[in-house]
Amino acid sequence: MSKNKKDQARRAAYQARQEKEGKRVVNWIFGILVALALCFIAYSVYIVM
After folding, report:
1. What is the pLDDT of residue 12?
2. Exposure class string for 6-45: b at 16+ Cβ within 10 A, else e
């Protein structure tokens, strides 16, 4: 039974690590999209003038 508890603890730690890394990736993607949107806005203003 102790092996089962070790497996559960390892699985929980792995799941927590994956969740943390996943949130970081989502934040990076969101940041890049915002930066690209700002570049597009600046480009659009430049073209109109």
Report:
1. 92
2. eeeeeeeeeeeeeeeeeeeeeeeeeeeeeeeeeeeeeeee
